[in-house]
């Protein structure tokens, strides 16, 4: 069963069309990734799914419900939770209070207390730093906090916007390992937006490549990883030299 179904979605900032007719589906319990260069419309897509931006056209279904144009707090309560690009932790609140902010829609106190333990198990550093201001954490620790805060909402699905942004390869790998564990252990469905195509295609089941607001390629990541054109465009592995290869390489470089 598809947990998320997006059909012909269009979003714009005034006259600037950022998402131009996107359709995609994510089955329950799976990890999907949306890859694409800067400005492709990835963040706009996620913000539209989570209700921060109203779409101009198209529809979003989550589980049994049509959530097109619903407000963000309704969408969070339904179990669709976004981890924003750039983390957006509350710098002057403690790490623990940031986590509790993630549970603001919940009324099951015992469940919240239990989940606080669970997320601190996934990210032990957040237990160590529980009483410190979140603004004092490193970039990687703030990314961990942002993911943990999303988990505190007891989500069925998490939308993760560029978790690797500005992080070292080692930290990024650590975060992806935990994301994979969360998916396997809790059955949480994920949609991960990334510019690091190599990493994302390694953990996700399904991949969508977004360019200029449109999906230009989609498929199983196992298949996408093996496709020569994907390797050239998105993984930086060149198969042929010459003018064509050169052009593609330049394009690849603009991603990083
Ligand atoms: N707040 C905004 N106002 C106007 N245009 C925007 C705004 N945010 C993004 N855009 C434009 O929308 C397009 C898609 O941006 P975005 O969704 O942020 O892309 P990505 O996340 O893939 O880098 C870009 O052309 C960008 O300049
Ligand atoms: Mg973005």
UniProtKB/TrEMBL annotation:
Keywords (A to Z) from UniProt: Amino-acid transport, ATP-binding, Cell membrane, Membrane, Nucleotide-binding, Transport
Signal peptide: none
Gene Ontology biological-process annotations: L-amino acid transport
Domain ABC transporter: start-end pairs: 4-237
Cross-referenced Gene3D superfamilies: P-loop containing nucleotide triphosphate hydrolases
KW Hydrolase (keyword) present: no
Name of a matching Pfam family: ABC_tran
Source species, domain of life: Bacteria
GO molecular function, one term: ATP hydrolysis activity
Keyword NADP assigned: no
The family this protein is said to belong to: Belongs to the ABC transporter superfamily.
Protein name in the entry: ABC transporter ATP-binding protein
Species in which this protein is naturally found: Inhella crocodyli
């Amino acid at each position: 069963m598809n947990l998320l179904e997006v059909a012909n979605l269009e979003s714009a900032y005034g006259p600037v069309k950022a998402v131009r007719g996107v359709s995609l589906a994510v089955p329950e319990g799976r990890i999907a990734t949306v890859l694409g260069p800067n400005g492709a419309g990835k963040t706009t897509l996620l913000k539209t799914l989570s209700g921060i931006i109203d779409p101009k056209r198209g529809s979003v279904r989550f589980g049994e419900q049509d959530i097109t144009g619903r407000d963000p707090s309704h969408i969070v309560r339904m179990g669709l939770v976004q981890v924003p690009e750039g983390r957006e932790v509350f710098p002057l609140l403690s790490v623990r209070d940031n986590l509790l902010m993630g549970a603001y829609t919940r009324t099951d106190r015992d469940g919240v207390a239990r989940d606080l333990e669970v997320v601190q198990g996934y990210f032990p550093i957040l237990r160590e730093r529980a009483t410190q201001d979140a603004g004092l954490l490193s970039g990687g620790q703030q990314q961990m906090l942002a993911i943990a805060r999303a988990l505190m909402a007891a989500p069925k699905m998490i939308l993760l916007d560029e978790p690797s942004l500005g992080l070292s390869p080692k930290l990024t790998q650590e975060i992806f390992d935990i994301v994979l564990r969360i998916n396997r252990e809790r059955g949480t469905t994920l949609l991960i937006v990334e510019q690091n195509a190599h990493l994302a295609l390694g953990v996700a089941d399904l991949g969508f490549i977004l360019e200029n607001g449109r999906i230009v390629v989609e498929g199983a990541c196992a298949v996408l990883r093996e496709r020569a054109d994907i390797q050239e465009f998105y993984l930086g592995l060149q198969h042929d030299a010459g003018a064509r290869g050169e052009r593609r390489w330049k394009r690849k470089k603009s991603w990083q």
